[in-house]
Amino acid sequence: MKSGKAKMSLSGQKAQRLRIGWARAARFKVPIPRDEKERLNALRSYNILDTPPEETFDSVTVLAAHVCRTPIALMVLIDRDRQWFKARVGVRVRETPREFSFCAYTIMQRGLLIIPNAVRDNRFAANPYVASGPKYRFYAGAPLVTPDNRALGTLCVIDKVRRTLSAPQKKDLIALSRLVMKELELRRSLTDKQLDGEKVSAGPGYHLSITGATRRAASRFKPLRPWRPGHSDNNERTDRSRERPGA
Description:
This protein is an alpha+beta fold. It has a single domain (36-218), classed as Beta-Lactamase (2-Layer Sandwich), CATH 3.30.450. The chain is 38% helix and 15% strand. It contains seven helices and six strands, in the order αααβββαβαββαα. A hairpin with a 5-residue loop joins β2 and β3 (95-97). α3 (55-68) packs antiparallel against α6 (167-195) and α3 packs parallel to α7 (206-218). The longest helix is centred in the last third of the chain and has 29 residues, at 167-195. The radius of gyration is 22 Å and the shape is globular. The model is unreliable at 5-26, 202-209 and 220-247 (pLDDT under 50).
């Protein structure tokens, strides 16, 4: 009997260890805006989700990466359960789950969100993109806000080293996010006119001026090579002068 009790006790201990070892990982929760329903309706009104790449948005995103000196830049649109990348530099995927999104926090505010070191931020320390995988450290995002104050997504930059942005870089990233919204507004306006059967034109060279300006600015910088999963980061600088000690 004693032997049987000992076996039962041992089995109970093993079961307890198994329960601990195989417990489900806690789900990551991101904040949801109070105007989520209206925000999603606004996003759909632009008819831009799952559309092919467009030179204007690609150019602005490339410029954001170069201005902020980061290997990764994204134009992100936050859908119901995903974040979709209309334009991207330094990543190959077109979308990721919303539950792991840094940008889900950015659309909760109307100013720049900067995360100098994600490892030391309780909101992101356990995020799979921080704790494993690409091991992101730095993030800065500017919300893409409609004229009626709905945040559709972000223009953001990401790095794998802890750092921050200078005052001019912050100003430029915000300016570029506003440029994206102006282009989205123009794009929707032209689409609405086409649906109404009206004769449309590019207006007073607005679309061309955006594309030309961003192309000329981006041409001053050396192109960044895309990061590839499983490979060393080709864009990470060998000197760590960009890192902020103690950040």
